[in-house]
Amino acid sequence: MERKAILCVDDERIVLDSLVDQFMLTFGDKYHYEVAMSVDEAWEAIEFLVEDGIDMVLVVSDWLMPGVKGDKFLVDLHQKFPQTVKIMLTGQAEQGAIQNAIDNASLYAYIRKPWSESELIDKINHALEDA
Description:
Elements: E1 4-9, H1 13-27, E2 32-36, H2 39-51, E3 55-61, H3 70-80, E4 85-90, H4 95-105, E5 109-112, H5 117-130
Parallel strand pairs: 1-2, 1-3, 3-4, 4-5
C-alpha cells in the first residue's frame, strides 16, 4: 500500500495542533501527518518523507512566517514537487503573494484564518480527488 502524507507549515504550534486534530478526525490513519514551524523545518520533514518513500500529496502552509514567506516556499516546493497539492492558510497575506502562489506554484486554494473546519476539509477532499 502506498503511504501518503500531509505536511502543515505554520509558525504557531496551536494552529499545527488544530490542523492535525482535524485531519485525524476526518481522515484517521489514511495519511501520515508532518508538521513544521518554519520553512527550514518543512524542508527537513520533506527530506524525511522522501527518504522513507512516503508520497507528500498535500501541503498546507501559512504565509507570514519568520524568514521565508509562504508563497516563496510554495513556489520552491512546486519546482521540486509539482504534483503536490498546495493550500495557503493564513490570516495575513498580501494579494501579490497569493497571486504569486497561484501563478508560480499552482496554488489550489487560499483559506483565511480563522478558518471554517468544514471549508478546509471540503477543499482538501476536492483537492485530493483532483490530484
